[in-house]
Amino acid sequence: MIRSAVTISLVEQARGGPFVFWDDVEAGIRKAAELGFDAVELFAPGPDAVSVERVRSLLDGHGLKMAAVGTGAGWVIHKRQLCDPDAAGRRAAIDFIRSMIDFGGALGAPAIIGSMQGRWQGEVTKPAALDMLLEALVELGDHARQYGVPLIYEPLNRYETNLCNTQQDGVSLLERHPAINVRLLADLFHMNIEETSIAAGLRDGGRWIGHVHFVDSNRRPAGLGHMDYGPVAAALSEIGYDRYASAEAFAYPDPDAAARQTIETFRRVFR
Ligand code: LER
Ligand code: MN
Predict the structure, then answer these.
(1) Where are the beta strands (DSSP E) in the chain?
(2) CATH number of the domain to which 59 belongs
(3) Number of structural domains, the chain?
(4) What is the DSSP string of 84-113?
(5) Whose CA is nearest to atom 2 of ligand 1?
(6) Ligand 1 — pocket residues by CB below 6 A?
(7) Does the active-site annotation cover 248?
(8) Residues whose CB is less than 8 angstroms from the CB of residue 194 and which lie 6 or more positions away in sequence, other chains included
(9) Could you tell me if 6 and 27 are in contact, meaning their C-beta atoms sit under 8 angstroms apart?
(10) What is the reported pTM?
(11) For this structure, is 34 an active site residue?
């Protein structure tokens, strides 16, 4: 059964970005529980922004899970990325993600690599960048094994990366290392830009998909754009997807309404 999640951002530098709840992890968890979500997804500035013990006690107190933790602060705040031609910069990016894997892992949640993947440019060719990315994903996936979770890798639209834009791009990369402990993130907003058909893209991702960003075509909460969720739900059912549909969407028109809109659409589409 697909479970629902909603994002909470604690990253000031990401203000205005596609996150539903902001600033206050306690209020975000409480509101998510009140609305009937199964879990939250946390976007934090780093592994020490809020203690594992505090988050665990808030989640337990409200009967929620941690669906995933984002690592994008490594790019947004520290400008680190996995295709940095400078080996020391690359290592700093990997180390930041390792620390976020430890944070999420202690809560039973996988970490997401989105903007931290970077892009190929300058002296780095596309094949060289993909090699660097794959090497980092293998190492970080191995690091995540101790927590019994995969690492989640997210193909992004062309304005955010030139590495993997579609689910098939992601599959082609991960298949080069069949034992890799990495799963794909299917973000419906990015897929609406890049896939020929969103349902076909989900089938391309197939068993590799380990997380879904549940959002509408315009990045507003599900139900406020022109996404056709019938074929999305049918494709997810066909591939046997049974993890989270997590609301990574603008807080439009405001956080509470965005969360309510999301859970109503989630129930209509998946229940
Ligand atoms: C960025 O556009 C995105 O979708 C995030 O999930 C990745 O950090
Ligand atoms: Mn996303």
Answers:
(1) 3-9, 21-22, 39-43, 65-70, 111-113, 151-153, 182-187, 209-213, 244-247
(2) 3.20.20.150
(3) 1
(4) -SSHHHHHHHHHHHHHHHHHHHHTT--EEE
(5) 156
(6) 70, 72, 114-115, 154, 156, 160, 187, 213, 248
(7) yes
(8) 155, 157, 158, 165, 166, 201
(9) no
(10) 0.98
(11) no
246 CA distance to ligand 2 centroid (A)?
A: 9
Mutate to test the pocket of ligand 1, among 153, 187, 192 (most ligand atoms within 8 A of CB): 187
Confidence of residue 45 (pLDDT cuts 50, 70, 90): very high
Structural domain span for residue 203: 3-270
Cα of 102 from ligand 2 centre, angstroms: 21
Q: Give CA separation, 197 vs 112, 167, 214, in Å.
A: 24, 11, 16
Tens digit of pLDDT for each residue in 108-142? Answer: 999 999 999 999 999 999 999 999 999 999 999 99
Counting ligands in written order, which one lies closest to the CA of residue 161?
1
- Asked if the peptide bond before residue 253 counts as cis, ω within 30 degrees of 0, the response is yes
| Average pLDDT rounded to a whole number, residues 240-256 | 98
In the chain, pLDDT over 90 holds for what percent of residues?
100
How far apart are the C-alpha atoms of 236 and 2, rounded to whole Å? 9
Q: Which pair of structure tokens corresponds to residue 74?
A: 């490594």
Task: Give the position of tokens 């609301």.
Answer: 247
For the record, the structure tokens of 75 come out as 């790019």
